[in-house]
Amino acid sequence: MVKKIPLLLIAPLILGAFWNQQTAKASEAEVADQKVSLNVVTVATKPIKTNVQSSVPPSSLTESTIISSSATTSKVAVTPKLVGVSVASTKMDSITSHLEEKARKLSEPTVETKSTLSVSDKGLDQTVSKQANVVNPPAPQEEQSDLQVMNDSRLSVSKASRVVQPVKAIVDDKGITIQYQATIPTNTSILYAVWGDQQGQNDLTWYQSSATGAAYVEFARHKEYGKYHIHTYSKSYGIMVGINTLEISLLRPQITSKVVQNNSNSFTITVSNVPSTITGVSIPVWTDKNGQDDLKWYQASQTSAGVYQVLVDIANHHNEKDLYNIHIYGNSTITGGQIGLATRTYSNVESKANAKIYVIDYAENKTQFTVNVVGSSSTKTLTDVQIAVWSEGNGQDDLAWYKPVISSNMASQIIDIAKHSNTSDNYIIHVYTNYSDGSREGLSLGAYKITKKRVDIKAPDVSVVNYQASKGKLDVLITQGTKTIKAIRVAAWSEADQSNMHWYVTSSLTNNQATVLVNQIYHKLLEGNYTIHTYLDFSDNTSRGFNLGQYYFAKPIGLSASQGNYAVVNNIIYLDAGHGGYDSGAAYFNQYEKTLNLQMQNRIKAKLEAAGYKVITTRTSDTYVDLIPRSENANASLSDLFVSLHFNASTSSYANGIESYYYEYYPEYPSAINELYHDDLERLSRSAFLAQAIQSAAVKNTGAKDNGVLRNTFAVLRETTAPAVLLELGYMSNATEFQKITTAAYQEKLANGVVSGILAYYKHYTV
Fold first, then answer.
1. Domain that holds residue 235
2. Is 198 among the domain residues?
3. What is the DSSP string of 467-484?
4. Domains contained in the chain, number
5. pLDDT category, 350, cuts 50, 70, 90?
6. Regarding beta strands 641-648 and 572-577, do their DSSP bridges make them parallel or antiparallel, or are they unpaired?
7. Residue 393 belongs to domain with CATH number
8. Domain CATH for 519
9. Residues 117, 119, 123, CA angle at the centre, nearest 5°?
């Protein structure tokens, strides 16, 4: 517990101590025939705690010893040693004032012990009872002075009073050399109490000097930077007497750092002036972007005494061009751990110029111009270019964005006002460039005036020709005007709910004209008034619609199976050679299925025509026709049946034989143009008969393996109104069978089998 000492009680003791010291070494100095011989216990500005430590001093100070205060002291007497001072009696008021100030400071509570601290008033017999946990410091000495008196103009000090400081301390990187400079009396030892300022007296260590008064304090024992306290005591016959107090400061290492950019991908950090007490340097680095998501610790390499370096690759930091944070840490032999040495930042953002941006090929009477974005090795690297262009009239209703391709750090874009308002106007250009350093720049190139030459615009002409009500047909004739037609769409329907609407689409024009056939068969063959709408899409991305009115289509007569009347037979057969054009079908041994399909179609066609039948085909050359148009053509042909010709393939080289397919309904594949008849029982029955007749005859004629009649929802089987089959006449993937199906003799056998099956169908269903 800390006790406060009233000023009036302690003042006599301090006054006596002060006066006693003035006469200790100068017997000739007397003041008013009065002599005071009292010793007092002085109080430290910061208390000392006991702490048992051990140490091995440097070899040069082998006689000094580090001791534990709790192990060596049972009684401690603190006797301040003051030099003699001659003071005139007329100056007593000044001395009294000075001593009162000292007494006031000493009365403040600064010491707490676990035992009772008793102060004797018996002069030199004054001691501390029991073993003290806190050791009071010696009497304070005036810093940097040989005098133990205040600089008061009212005090006269004799030259004889000047003395040399009894203790000096010399600091190096690793510790403190302490030297007691006065003569050490016989049977007297010198002890030093040393501790750092950071955490009280947690590191308090007692050092016993050598016979010459020397001791060495290792910083590594105290593990602190900052202020250190050194209190000096003499010990004689078990009595401890305070002699002197010193304070020194150990600064953290004052390193320097430098960052040098090596290239666009790396930079080097150099740390210099690193003392020997730092045994390693670690440097965490990260950019300002996205917190510390790119934080990386680097272990620096020592390149020479006191110099460490580390190479930072920006690939470790997401290749960011940004502000880099650099913290420098060292492994300290003093603290036994890592300490912070310095922090700094470094920006690797390129200072290169932006790319040059300008317009070329501009003239007021031209409707095109070019925007150039030109970079080089001396400019920033382009990563993206975006160009916004619009005309002043009507705000930004014609705003269009361009994204030219970057090549060799350059980009170029042709601007055509036809993609904007296409009128005489001022055209505004903004260019946005992104660079590899993460920067984005926007530049307005201003407005460029375009005056278009006046052109008389001729409107397109759309009309109905070749109207045949009894046949349910008409043609829509389109003649192109000034604007280029990109696509033509014709919609026709007769039902109020548009349930039989069909769209006719084409983009083919000959001599600026196109003809679109509207046929009743694509509208469920319904009688009624048909509404005809035509839409033209132009190359300038505009469209125009035409209502051509209503046209009556009569009830169909003289129909065939292609229109769902299976009772009528016209002796017309539709042959469909599968694949074609870019769709080769199966390909084996340098042969394409599309070629074999066309060869078989030609053989079968010739034989049927020789038998008196009319044959219509999907294609007669190597051209591509999509699946739905194949069925549309068949449905418009008045044919009695549909035969699609194919050759097969398998992942197994052993697969072989012939197989035939007819339609099976799958709910997940609804009909697109044959809603009324795709699952008609009569159609399915006739299709099954035709498939079986052809399968049996083809297998019999060729001796091929019979894979049977199968069912599937192939598009040509689903969308064709007439009875329809799809034939797989052999496996191209089987080497043996491939050799057969590519010969004329075997193809003749196949053709005869197919024709035989078709004739069997007609014989069975003869009207």
1. 7-248
2. yes
3. EETTTTEEEEEEE--SSP
4. 5
5. low
6. parallel
7. 2.60.40.3760
8. 2.60.40.2150
9. 155
Taking the CA of residue 235 as centre, how many other CA atoms within 13 Å lie in the half-sphere pointing to its CB?
20
CATH of the domain at 279: 2.60.40.10
Q: Is 671 exposed, middle or buried (CB count within 10 Å of its CB: 0-12, 13-18, 19+)?
A: middle
Is 179 part of any domain? yes
Structure tokens that stand for 694 in this block: 């052809």
Angle between helices 7-24 and 92-106 (to 10 degrees): 120
Number of helical H runs and strand E runs in the chain? 10, 40
> Given strand 528-538, what is the order of strands in its sheet?
502-506, 485-493, 528-538, 543-553
What's residue 164's pLDDT? 60
432 falls in which pLDDT band (50, 70, 90)?
A: very high
Is 1 within the bounds of a domain?
no
A 10 A CB-CB count for 181 gives: 11
| Alpha-carbon separation of residue 579 from 124, 623, 715, 745 (angstroms) | 125, 8, 13, 23
Residue 636 pLDDT class (50, 70, 90 cuts)? confident
CA distance 175 to 177: 7
Angle (CA) 219 225 226, round 5°: 120
Rounded (10°) angle between helices 744-764 and 681-702: 140
Per-residue pLDDT, 142: 39
Reported as type and span, the H/E element at residue 603 is: helix 593-610
Instruction: Name the pTM for this structure.
Output: 0.36
Can you read off the two tokens belonging to residue 269? 């950090």
429 within a domain of the structure (yes/no):
yes
β-bridge mates for residue 325, sequence order: 286, 345
Q: Are 377 and 419 in contact (CB under 8 A)?
A: no
- Find, among 436, 434, 433, 450, the residue nearest to 358 by Cα: 433
**Scanning the structure block, which residue is given the tokens 């990109």?**
486
524-565 pLDDT tens trace: 778 999 999 999 999 999 999 999 999 999 977 657 888 888
HSE-up of 602 (CA within 13 Å, CB side)? 10
Beta-bridged to residue 231, according to DSSP, are 193, 245
